[in-house]
Amino acid sequence: MTDAGVQKPKVGLFVTCLVDAMRPNIGFASLKLLEAAGCDVYVPEAQTCCGQPAFNSGDDATTRAIAKQIIENFEQYDYVVVPSGSCASMIRTHYSDVFGADDPLAERQTALSAKTWEILSFLSDVMQYQPQDVQYDGVATYHDSCSGLRDLGVHDQPRQMLAEVSGLKLAALKDNDACCGFGGTFCVKYPDISNAIVTDKAQNIADTGADTLLAGDLGCLMNMAGKLSRDRHKVKAYHTVEVLAGMADDGGICGDGG
Amino acid sequence: MSDRAAILQSVRSASRALDTSAADIAAEAAALVADRTGVQPGFDGVHLTDRFVAKATSERVTATVDHVAGFDGVPGAVQAYLAHVKRSGPICVQSCAELDGLNWTGMERGATLQEDGGCAVTCAEYGIAETGSVVFRSGAHQPILTNFLPLHHIVILRTSTLLAYPEDLWAHLGGRDAPQSRLLTIVTGTSGTADIEARNVRGAHGPKHMHIVMVAD
Amino acid sequence: MIQTSDRFKEHVARALTDTNLKVALNRTTSLLQTRRKQVVEEYAEYDEARKRAQAIKDHTLKHMAHYLEMFEENATAQGAIVHWAKTPDEARRIVADICVKAEAKTATRVKSMLGEEIGIADALKDAGVERIETDLAEHIIQLAEDPPSHIVMPAMHKTHEQVATLFDDKHGVAPDSHDIPDLVASARRELRQKFLSADVGISGANFLIAETGAIVTVTNEGNSELTCTPPKVHIVTAGIEKIIPGMDHASVFLRLLARAAIGAEITQYTTFYNGPKRDGDADGPEQYHIVLVDNHRTDMLGSDLQPMLRCIRCGACMNHCPVYAAVGGHAYGAVYPGPMGSVLTPALSSLEAAKDLPNACTLNGRCKEVCPVNIPLPDMLRNLRARQWDAKLVSPVAKTALGGWGYLAQRPKLYHLVVGLTVHGMRAWAFGRNRIKRMPFAGGWVKHRDLPRPEKGSFMQQYNASKHGIGRRS
User: Fold this and answer.
1) What integer is the mean pLDDT of B6-17?
2) C72-108 pLDDT, tens digit each
3) Which of 100-119 (B) contact C at CB < 8 A?
4) Residues in chain C within 8 Å Cβ distance of B185
């Protein structure tokens, strides 16, 4: 919460391509939390993708072109906030890989990258925000998505924030920091390997006895929820922000409906 | 062009070797290891011998340790070990100044180790407390195979030769200008392998049992 | 070993249905992870040691020619005969030549991946020398006629039941039982006399110490010393990147290697070989040769692949790789599997020959996390993908799909239109159900997983509608 009279931080919300297409609820939950945390939130129209598919396929030129668009549309804000560890990391840690030191946009890119945040770490570390009076009845297990964890150090923040949710118990997930097998284009290029990895992950999730799965990346969630659903495990999968915003009531991703 | 010349030429052009003098390179290298304590596990004030024994007898090393007040006690300690593991018959004792003059009555010392199952007694030149290791160097009085062929290896270690860290050992050995033995081996416990299903098993090709007799001096 | 990385997908298909392999990998990888984690937690100075090891390697690579010449001078002064080989062919020729001159009939070998890399088995065959692998895992794969599947535990792909069957069949005296300790005892029995009667002993080197001319082997079984002491001739084959300045520098690496590789503070035998038998020595080889091998290491030097030359071959990366754990080492079709193998194999062969390797990775980053010398493996794999892209090695289908995606992504209005239509289409395709089980163009996904039914519009559609007071659709 900001003090009266202090200017609210201007946040550019970058929802990510997956959230835009497959689960807008995460975008709206992010909006709600950011506003509750005391931010002025803007949703630039000209947002599409962070460029990860191109980057991970080795197409640096297209990555740079997409990055340029993000820079142009978001650099005016105090912060860029993203409900995804991998997309936030793409902007924050990997954009510099496609902008050489001599690149005319290098300085602007560096500035943008420096103010880009994954949402849970932004709410916690920058805004020191803790959602109040949140209710969620259930036992949840938490998966640490790789980019958020290893590139951005997102680990304690979601746990601390979830700890304050009434009715919610957390059950530890075996190998919580092991990759779920999504890996962006990996899961469609090598579907059978991806399946082998997510099969183990789904088993670990089922073994916790939790009725809810939480994580900070929709790609991972779709992958795990899709597998849990195919294997008929009754687990509701939500993005952490959906629970924190009190908007986790539709049965989750690949769920049975609200 | 010889392979040697070709390789060195490739290395030089690839590493864009600057004209750094040998002295400067040496100084840079020395600076990288000047602060040894930064990488050496601390002992927290534990005495060298205690550290050595704790490590040597730990699960990862699996040696057993005995203590004698002087070299005179060595044969007795050896006999006690042999009785403990119920082993009779000739043993192989390293022929060296420390062990030759001792009272080995009742023990046949001339065994060879060609057949498996043997027992050998050898003198370690140093001990390293950091890891519970003992050090052997090949030489006229140190057939290296005597440390690798037996099933039971009894190591005689003088407490005065106990060092804290391997870096102390290098300092003791006098650097590159001192004569180098053919081989120097730092032995930490008994031979083992985890090659089958990562299961740790002792007694791969080398000794299966190590008994360290520490001689106070 | 003949590289078959170009058949990665074929190997993977086979691996994923191999139940024995799954059992073997399940029994090993998590155990290795746990051991490493424990011993690293106990080593307070771990992060400092890692930083220092990286700095030492970087310094050495910067002055590599200086250190290689220093090593050669000092090793030669100690009685070693130093040879240089630019290619595996040349390295094999040198080894075969030494064996022929020594009239060798048998050679014992200590595990060395560089030896695999240069095809030392062929060199010995050419020289008419019987090759006896002594490392337990190498002994197993020699009997099974398998290539190695891991750089530290080459027989990781075998369950103990499979090893038992192998030993029952091939050992002179069958094992006393099928329990692992008895299998080890059987190998001990089988190999003991062979150590003592070999004509040549061949090892690799974990490190080459420039200051003293010594080589170091880091082992557990005792087979290094038993291989390198009895024979008349000891041959060392080593990649030139193994060079480090001095003994104190070696100590930094030794603390990291055992911890990263096997979860121990030190291996049972850390042995420095300085030269041949000295006058008066009770045992030792009369001849001592060191073969320094390049094989594309100089190509990596000075390029974006240089960090790979820091590798100390601990295997931690593959122990923590979800892809390796799913498919095993043979799938990679190369001497070096897993993350480090996926960088090294294209470097040692070509981008084309190892096309899949940099791509069969989720970029999860665990490998980089556990690497004791901070090699940025995911970054390097991605850089290899960039090289493949520039070399036009990406499939036309992928290129078209990504091209289409990139085109749309740079045209937001068109993008949002297309996404809106796709969302609408997918939602209709779901036929009122919450999950989609089948969908055209999504075969790779729906083969194994369900897709969620999208909401009634994309986020941008709903957001724009709500801005105009229409309210959020649900």
Assistant:
1) 90
2) 999 999 999 999 999 999 999 999 999 999 999 999 9
3) 114, 116
4) 225, 269-272
Pairing label, strands A166-171, A212-215: unpaired
Contact B17 C66 (CB under 8 A): yes
Q: Which of residues 162-201 of B touch C (CB under 8 A)?
A: 165-167, 170, 175-176, 180-199, 201
Last residue of a domain, one of C375, C390, C405: C390
* C29 part of a folded domain: yes
| Cβ <8 Å between B188 and C266 | yes
> How far apart are the two ends of chain B, measured CA to CA in Å?
59
C452, containing H or E segment = strand C451-452
Cβ <8 Å between B188 and C269: yes
Asked whether residue A25 is assigned to any structural domain, the reply reads yes
Q: Walk across the sheet containing A212-215 and list its strands.
A: A166-171, A135-142, A212-215, A236-239
Average pLDDT over residues A158-181: 97
Note whether residue C372 is domain-resident: yes
Collect all residues of chain C within an 8 Å Cβ-Cβ radius of residue B15.
Answer: 61-65, 301-302
3-state secondary structure of A178: coil
Q: How far is the alpha carbon of A89 from chain C, nearest alpha carbon, in Å?
A: 12
Contact C134 B116 (CB under 8 A): no
User: What pLDDT score was predicted for residue A3?
Assistant: 56
Ranges of H-type helices in A38-185: 52-56, 60-74, 85-89, 95-98, 106-114, 119-121, 146, 156-163
Interchain CB distance below 8 Å, A150 and C387: no
Mean pLDDT of B185-192: 97
Identify the domain boundary among C341, C362, C390.
C390
Domain boundary among A125, A142, A170: A125
* Cβ contact B–A (≥3 pairs, < 8 Å): no
**pTM of the predicted model as reported, rounded to 2 decimal places:** 0.96
Encode pLDDT of C300-316 as tens digits. 999 999 999 999 999 99
> In this complex, which of C325, C415, C449 lies closest to A48 when CB atoms are compared?
C415
In chain B, what are the domains? 41-215 (3.40.50.10420)
What is the domain range of residue C446? Answer: 396-467
- Distance from the C186 Cα atom to the nearest Cα atom in chain B, whole angstroms: 10
Are C and B touching by the rule of 3+ CB pairs within 8 Å?
yes
Question: How many angstroms away from the CA of C72 is the closest CA of chain B?
Answer: 11
What integer is the mean pLDDT of C123-137? 96
Residues C402, C377 share a domain? no
Contact residues, chain C, for A192 at CB < 8 Å:
12-13, 16, 448
Q: Chain B contact for C2, CB < 8 A?
A: no
Q: What is the span of the domain harbouring residue A231?
A: 130-244
Express each pLDDT in C429-472 by its tens digit. 988 888 999 998 888 899 999 999 999 999 999 999 987 655 55
Residues C213, C341: one domain? no
Residue A34 lies in a domain: yes
Whether residues A162 and A137 share a domain: the answer is: yes
- Cβ count near C440 (within 10 Å): 7
Regarding whether A153 and A108 lie in a shared domain, the answer is: no
> Other CB atoms closer than 10 Å to residue B42's CB: what's the count?
10
Q: What is the mean pLDDT of residues B111-115?
A: 90
Which residue, among A171, A233, A223, has the nearest Cα to A197 in the 3D structure?
A223
Task: Name B191's Cβ contacts closer than 8 Å, sequence gap at least 6.
Answer: B148, B202, B203, B204, B205, B206, B207, B208, C220, C221, C222, C268, C269
In-domain check, residue C235: yes
Q: Model confidence over C41-58: pLDDT tens digits?
A: 999 999 999 999 999 999
**Band of residue C474 on the pLDDT scale cut at 50, 70, 90:** very low
Q: Does the distance separating the beta carbons of C444 and A191 come in below 8 Å?
A: yes
CA angle, C124 as apex, C121 and C130 as ends, to 5°? 95
Residues C174 and C323 placed together within one structural domain of the fold: no
The confidence score (pLDDT) of residue A92 equals 98
Tell me: ipTM over 0.95.
Answer: yes
Residues C289 and C335 in one domain: no
Strand duo C81-85 + B92-93: pairing: unpaired
B41 vs C contacts (CB less than 8 Å): 43-45, 255, 265
For residue B27, list chain C residues with Cβ-Cβ distance below 8 A.
Answer: none
